[in-house]
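Reproducibility note. Readers wishing to regenerate the assembly model reported in the main text can use the exact inputs given here. Chain order matters: entities are listed in the order in which they were concatenated for prediction.
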Amino acid sequence: MGDHVMREHTTSGCKSHLSILHIPEPLRTSQEQAALEGHLAACARCHAEAGRLTEAIAAFRAEPDPALPVGATEKILARVARDREVSETAANEPQAFQQGEAGGGRAGSGQAVRSWKGFLDRLLGSMGPPRVMFPALAAALLVVVVVPLTLTRDGVREKSPGAGAIRPLVDLQATVERIQPDGSSTLTRVSDGMTMGPEDGLLFQFSVEGVAQVSLVECDPEHHFTVLFDHGTLDPASGGIIPLTDDRGRLLRYVPDGPAGEYVYLAVASPEPFSWNAALLDTVWNRYTDRVLAPLEAGGFSGFAIDALRIRFDPGLEQAPYQAVPDRR
Amino acid sequence: MAAYQQGDQGAFEELVRRYQSRIYRFLLKLTGNETLAEDALIETFFKLHRAAARYRSQSRFSPYLFTIAYREGLMILRKLRQEAGTTSGFDEGRFNRTQHTSLWPAGSSPASSVEARDRLRAVDRALELLTDAQRAVFLLYYREELSTADIARVLDTPAGSVRAYLCQARKTVCNILDAWEATPDLAAGRARRDATSSP
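Running the prediction on these inputs yields the following structure tokens for the assembly.
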């Protein structure tokens, strides 16, 4: 009979040795053990119950292991491998930006340009053109990219500082991560208006010019605001794009939990601390919808920089098409 | 784990292969649902990978991994309960020792449901009636053979609470067995089995 069971023999309700019920385990002294065994030898009721419990627990301990789900190991390893890949890509981002600037990017053209420049750099690098040809080729492609960017239709994605421009500038980017049935995941850079489903997770990244206090605000289809990330200090000296992580350094994988419809995510950056309240949220929202980059308050701190992304969320969507919806504007 | 921290990616696969059966076994009993257990299993090792840099080699690995698994299991159960608004997976603390007749699933009498079961099923049934913490303690102590001190670390609770949970879990198993013994049909069935099995 296992001693771990014998200690609980008083569950039979035997009143003669109630104190034994409170014996912590393991039994502290040989005297306690002897007292217990003595009682079990004398009390048939306790002995029988201890016997039943011993057998039940022995059967439980001897139960064969359940079969692992098919492919579980592969799913685990695939997910971890994918995460390593993402981490390595994120770690290489700052270097890519530096390459972009070194390649002749226009000073003051904003992160969006440098992002594209870095992206093109990597793209062309992977295609393998001779490095001596790269500057000319990249410059030609940059014209194709930069012109549309600087002629943004509504200014929402406008990064170029105009009159009354505010520092820091902020750039919000997001990637949609979808976990596949085999445990692997795919990453798709979010384009404005992209549709996502409940199985997709948003991974946010900021980049800023200048030291900034950055917040991330969600506006759901019912115009409710949620501050998802409040006042993280993002110092560009730490390098390039800064992924949005929780307090343990894990990438935040965000899934809207509201109704279907359009969600707007506003990255709000300010060189000085500020406190969120309903009025300020409305003000920021109005600035977003008005597409005005002027300072919020005369005489106050210098103001906010805002960047926005729109997502269409469909909770019933099992396979998001990853296609941008038609621009309504 | 130390090898994985040093960048040996094969070490992680070795960890998975070495521990996945134990973790899955624990999660399956904790959640009572294969799908939930598999999800929690994958998430457990993913979190282990993410936490690799923070792992300190002086702490024992097995309790560390069970800590992650326990939290993942709880998180999935709670999320499911919130979403469903009802019980999915095991319920929390339904057991009332004064209501033995309610221990058995609706539509099945103790006679019909237990006669064919062995004592193992009594333990399984008891596990369903325990709270999440009690169930975890019982599993970690009796099946995974962790010490009460290690279990206290896994649950982030005082060792005294672990012992109390263990005591409550054993009482619940005893009560199930008592109900079994108290059922005349079962007693008769067991007597018949005993008679036929004796020489």
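We highlight two features of this model. Chain A has a mean pLDDT of 63. The beta strands of chain A are 169-179, 185-189, 194-196, 200-209, 212-219, 225-234, 242-243, 261-270, 305-313.
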